[in-house]
Amino acid sequence: MLTPDFDLLMMRRALDLARLGTGTARPNPLVGCVITHEGRIIGEGWHRQYGGPHAEVNAVAAVADPILLPHSRAYVTLEPCSHHGKTPPCADLLIEKGIPEVVVCNLDPNPLVAGRGLAKLREAGITVETGVLEHEGRWLNRRFFTFQEKKRPYVVLKWAETADGYLAGPYYQSVPISGDLARVAVHQWRAEEQAILVGTRTALHDNPHLTVRDWPGPNPTRIVIDKNLSLPPTHHLFNGQQPTVVYTYRERATKNNVGFVMLSEAEDLFPQIFNNLYQRNVQSVLVEGGPTVLNSLLKDGLWDEIRVLRSPKRLGGGVSAPKPGLSGLREHCQLSEDELFVYVNGANK
Q1: Is 56 a catalytic site residue?
Q2: Which EC number(s) are documented for this chain (predicted)?
Q3: Domains of the chain and any CATH numbers
Q4: pLDDT digit string (tens) for 109-149?
């Protein structure tokens, strides 16, 4: 007889599988599936690529002896879909294969699903259990849940600061702060988020590429705030090598893979930006801006996660890092000589 501990073990395996789709499944959620028979895994899979087969399809295909499926138990990290999208409904597949028991981590907040998948399974006589490792599942798919529930992207603020609390030189000149391992971590974060945002001053002084170079994965869409279109067109952000969106108060036509979105000066800046990104189906944004952008988002509470890299180096003066007085510390670890602090915004849970 299967035990609750076995269910937890199998769902943890499904969550680990789901995580393998990071960066490639988006904007779809991360989903993993494990199929067992008499306490033994007979098939497993995950959603590998947007537009490709879902986790349940890959798990069923991995079962060497399909005759076992009508006597099996499926563990899925997210409610099986019930609608036709780029692929057929996974709920229909589980029903077709005669799988009698399905254990689900999270319900799908997408209005196209939202309980319909589970209802379809139950109507077909399948025993359904929900809420197994629910909190872990929500954290794994925090970008997807925020996008669906709050109608905006998941916002990650990131900055590197010295031991004496500075993030740039006295005149905003870029200075090396973090070490090599921290730089690799930042490029991993870029690959994990759908977009990356900087303000005018950071773009002007740092002339960044905002690409993924020290980690395998896709480049994020580049987001630049340039209210008065003052940035030089020769900067890396305008090289057309990846999609770039400029938010501005001036009108300009799209050119060379760079789009310009004119905002209203009469309305708050970031709600307009996040609403536009929502319309573009951008589910997460890594903010690598300077103190003006960071402090504005902190002041308005428009953030979900903060990652601070603290170096042992000292500058003795310069541009001060934000001092938000944060609670909600989720993680604290060492990255070689640097410390990483990760905070979550309890107000946005």
Answers
A1: yes
A2: 3.5.4.26, 1.1.1.193
A3: 4-145 (3.40.140.10), 151-348 (3.40.430.10)
A4: 887 777 889 999 999 999 999 999 999 999 999 999 999 99
